[in-house]
Specification:
By secondary structure, the chain is an alpha/beta fold. The protein folds into two domains: 2-127 and 325-375, NAD(P)-binding Rossmann-like Domain (Rossmann fold, 3-Layer(aba) Sandwich), CATH 3.40.50.720; 132-324, Dihydrodipicolinate Reductase, domain 2 (2-Layer Sandwich). 34% of the residues lie in helices and 25% in strands. It has helices at residues 10-22, 59-66, 81-91, 102-109, 112-117, 132-143, 173-181, 225-228, 246-255, 273-285, 324-342, 353-356, 359-368; strands spanning 2-6, 26-31, 49-53, 71-74, 94-97, 121-123, 149-158, 184-188, 191-195, 202-205, 212-217, 235-242, 264-266, 269-271, 292-301, 307-315, 349-350, 374-375. The chain has a seven-stranded parallel β-sheet with strand order 3-2-1-4-5-6-17, with helices on both faces. The chain is globular and about 50 Å long. The mean pLDDT is 95.
Length: 376
């Protein structure tokens, strides 16, 4: 069996590692830049791991690489996923990705007929959020009569926070700032409404080392779910978790215009304020080797006080040097691709993770990797 991972960044490398450690598959890891791969992949290179240079915008090259593989898992930027899914259907292989953009998912859903006709599973939104959090929310919805509220909370955090933001980058700062400036779509009274990013702060308690965390609205974490359940569930929302005080600082930074994308002139040079902020803040917030954690909670409430809740607190893998964010996101993508290849996905065609992922098999596979989801 041959498996293809598109994108050799943090999540793609973790996905490839998991495939190599948990299957006997031949794995191809492809990216435009293939230098500087993590050391944990070195023992597999030249044996079961093939590293390929690939420009994902060169569709002829993508087709050539895809052929002969059973499934492709995309850890590429979200805006490439619609084309990658289309090419996967053309080439006759299963496909999954990390999602993150509702419009791209809608575009992928138009491939449903062709994918079904070819017996393929095309699954967007297979990371942590969207992905794991959606699967847990869907299971809670199945268990509860007359659901009244679905609340999802996820955060990637440093184990040892440092001021002023008490935050360390676990993926691109540009992506984080998009979440802090884009409205979040939620359900209130069963209607789809937008909520301002960084608003409606509340507090949740987790075991050490996380402790008390704050939660606030950000966009994209549950992808298409608010649209899919509009009119059927009164309240549905997603919030990001951070250490207390983070949101107010970021609201002040945003209020000063430092996250704006409108160009301004400074000393005769035209710049965008956000570009400058990214350059300066990235130096402070990116700390190679820093130990991270991922905190997650999903709560579904319904009739008669019925409540189903799932929690996760995952930490950096000291032995392998794999971050908690890579474990919960990259490993989740790997599990999806393996289940697609094994034919154990609930339905063929295009379906998001919450629609087609078998809950028990998914949670069990993550537990085997030490990513343990607890039911409260």
């Amino acid at each position: 069996m041959r498996m293809l991972v598109l994108g050799a960044g943090l999540q793609g490398s973790a996905c490839a590692l998991d495939l190599l450690r948990t299957t006997d598959a031949q794995v191809t890891l492809a990216d435009a830049r293939i230098d500087g791969l993590p050391a944990y992949l070195d023992p597999f290179r030249g044996n079961r791991l093939t590293v390929a240079s690939l420009d994902a915008r060169d569709h002829a090259s993508v087709r050539g690489l895809m052929r002969g593989h059973v499934a492709a898992m995309s850890a590429l930027p979200y805006y490439l996923n619609a084309d990658m899914a289309r090419l996967a259907v053309e080439c006759g292989l299963h496909f999954s990705d990390l999602g993150g953009n509702t419009e791209i998912v809608r575009e992928q859903q138009r491939l449903d007929g062709d994918a079904r006709a070819r017996g393929l599973s095309i699954m967007p939104d297979c990371g942590l959020a969207p992905g794991m959090v959606n699967i847990l929310a869907a299971e809670g919805i199945r268990r509860v009569d007359r659901v009244s509220a679905v609340r999802c909370y996820v955060g990637g955090l440093p184990q040892h926070p440092e001021p002023p933001l008490n935050y360390t980058l676990v993926y691109s700062l540009e992506g984080v700032l998009d979440y802090y400036t884009t409205p979040s779509w939620i359900l209130r009274d069963g209607r789809l409404v937008s909520a301002e990013a960084l608003s409606e702060i509340e507090f949740l308690d987790f075991p050490a080392p996380a402790g008390r965390l704050e939660a606030f609205h950000t966009a994209g974490g549950i992808s298409t779910m608010p649209w899919d359940f509009e009119g059927r569930i009164p309240v549905m929302e997603y919030k990001t978790l951070r250490y207390p005080g983070h949101a107010e600082i970021m609201r002040s930074i945003r209020g000063l215009g430092l996250l704006d994308l409108t160009e301004v002139k400074v000393g005769g040079v035209t710049i965008r304020p956000r570009d400058l902020f990214v350059v300066l803040a990235d130096r402070k917030l990116r700390q190679p080797g820093a130990r991270d954690l991922v905190a997650l909670r999903v709560v579904v409430e319904g009739a008669g006080g019925r409540r189903v809740a799932f929690s996760l607190l995952d930490k950096h893998d000291e032995q392998l040097g794999v971050s908690a964010m890579m474990r919960t996101t990259g490993y989740s993508l790997s599990v999806t691709g393996q289940m697609q290849a094994a034919g154990s996905i609930a339905r063929k065609g295009v379906a998001t993770a919450y629609e087609a992922m078998p809950f028990d098999a998914y949670v069990g596979a993550l537990a085997e990797r030490g990513v343990r989801i607890e039911e409260e």
